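Private note to self, pasted from the team thread so I don't lose it. Backbone tokens:
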């Protein structure tokens, strides 16, 4: 499956840094801004923006501070992950199930590990690989990088992870500088089915503008990059209302436009670069820059790579947007605006957005996830990668977890933490892992009672030996039809072995030595 990564520059020096440095605002954006590796709140000078430390969102990794005085505060620290035993390193954010979120990850290498070239690694959101993080070119040009995705929340938490890949050098570690999780309104990008798809940002530009546009002009903290070319730039004479557009583009994005002459085609090579062959969400924004007039017509047709995108678009001073929820693009992209013969003015364009459509259908069954999250909370020292989706992506599954996948749903079928040095207790909800075939927790320091397992009808093997379990052996074990092996020796169990378990045909049962069981 192809993945588009977006690596656009955020300049590092104070005088040419992110555009919000030039503004002040009475409030924060709608969401959570996190400075990774920081121990204190990071405030952005001349604004009300502040990023909070990341300690409450992750429990793995090391912090470091970069040795430079001319960095943005959020780029001056980072968290890196040298722990090679973990299959992924995840931040967890509280979200509203069914909500829509813009997630931005920010990276600045800064030579934190003494090297000269940034490591290359993957980033994962939920249970889906989002993109490859490769900041090499940006870093060589003295810039940081960011990646964006719009995603629907399928649970009450959202995990944002980085992970090693086959492109990660053996002596390097994934890292991250900052994360932003911003809530979007229901109307925004509402033609996308966020139950099965996500939108990965490829380009977002304000045509004719020489400066970027972001918060507070865009309260959703989207960054609209400047775009100019050889074409004419015009300024608008009227103000549009952002609320009139589904996607809420900032009013400032309409202040300038790239324009063509009367009766002449306007061609724009945008987005820059070559796009991989797949489908994209494309939204284009237009406004007649002249003063309103009953006899003033600005009508033109829009084509993308020679294919009709919209015919006879009538652009007014109130503004208009046209979009495609799944437009095929491949290679270089050319937008052509062809004026109508009777149009009193030439074509123009104010802004545009392009997102790659990322299939987002596979996930671990929510009930299984809830059990595993509770189990992780019950452990004193869970494996470092026990955050995020327990199984997906498969190559980044939790340590010891195996699943089967049917259609788009993964079910946990095996849990093996044998001899992992883990202490804690088993939650009663372990009984909800109804697809479980094998539960191997032997050779650890589990304590407390063994829960009833009435619903584990597919359970074949149960290894709880060499722990500190107390109480009685659950009666339900003798009623499990698929059970063929039970190892309970060397615990502190009391009472008697349930008769159905002791007499079960074909069952390998070991309960001694080390328990206090009566015959």
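Design output:
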């Amino acid at each position: 499956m192809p993945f588009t990564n977006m690596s656009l520059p955020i300049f590092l020096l104070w005088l040419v840094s992110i555009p919000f440095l030039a503004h002040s605002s009475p409030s924060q954006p709608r969401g959570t801004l996190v400075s990774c590796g920081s121990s204190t709140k990071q405030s952005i000078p001349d604004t009300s923006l502040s990023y909070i430390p990341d300690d409450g969102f992750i429990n793995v990794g090391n912090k470091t501070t970069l040795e430079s005085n001319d960095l943005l505060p959020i780029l001056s620290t980072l968290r890196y992950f040298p722990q090679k035993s973990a299959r992924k390193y995840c931040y967890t954010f509280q979200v509203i199930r069914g909500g829509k979120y813009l997630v931005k990850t920010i990276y600045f290498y800064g030579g934190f590990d003494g090297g000269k070239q940034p490591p290359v690694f993957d980033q994962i959101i939920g249970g889906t690989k989002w993109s490859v993080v490769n900041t090499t070119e940006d870093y060589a040009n003295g810039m940081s990088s960011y990646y964006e995705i719009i995603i629907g929340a399928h649970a009450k938490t959202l995990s944002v992870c980085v992970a090693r890949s086959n492109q990660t050098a053996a002596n390097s570690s994934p890292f991250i500088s900052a994360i932003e999780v911003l809530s979007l309104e229901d109307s925004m990008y509402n033609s996308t089915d966020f139950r099965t798809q996500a939108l990965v940002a490829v380009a977002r530009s304000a045509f004719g503008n020489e400066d970027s546009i972001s918060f507070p002009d865009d309260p959703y903290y989207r960054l609209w990059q400047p775009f100019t070319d050889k074409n004419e730039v015009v300024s608008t004479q009227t103000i549009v209302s952002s609320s009139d557009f589904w996607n809420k583009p900032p009013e400032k994005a309409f202040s300038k436009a790239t324009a063509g002459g009367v009766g002449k085609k306007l061609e724009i090579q945008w987005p820059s670069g070559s796009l991989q062959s797949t489908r994209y969400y494309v939204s284009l924004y237009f406004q007649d820059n002249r003063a309103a007039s009953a006899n003033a017509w600005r009508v033109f047709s829009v084509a993308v790579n020679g294919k009709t995108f919209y015919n006879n678009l009538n652009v007014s001073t109130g503004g208009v947007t046209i979009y495609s929820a799944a437009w095929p693009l491949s290679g270089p992209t050319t937008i052509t605006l062809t004026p109508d013969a009777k149009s009193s003015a030439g074509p123009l364009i104010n802004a545009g957005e392009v997102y790659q459509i990322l299939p987002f259908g596979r996930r671990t069954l929510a009930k299984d996830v809830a059990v595993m999250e509770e189990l992780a909370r019950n452990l004193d020292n869970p494996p470092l990668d026990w955050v995020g989706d327990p199984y997906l992506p498969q190559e980044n599954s939790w340590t010891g977890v195996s699943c089967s996948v049917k259609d788009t749903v993964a079910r946990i079928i095996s849990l093996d933490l044998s001899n992992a040095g883990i202490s804690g207790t088993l939650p009663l909800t372990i009984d909800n892992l109804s697809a479980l075939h094998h539960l191997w927790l032997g050779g650890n320091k589990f304590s407390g009672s063994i829960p009833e397992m009435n619903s584990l009808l597919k359970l074949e093997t149960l290894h709880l030996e060499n722990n500190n379990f107390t109480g009685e052996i659950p009666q339900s074990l003798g009623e499990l039809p698929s059970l063929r092996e039970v190892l309970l020796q060397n615990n502190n169990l009391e009472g008697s072995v349930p008769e159905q378990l002791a007499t079960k045909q074909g069952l390998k049962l070991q309960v001694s030595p080390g328990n206090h069981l009566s015959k």
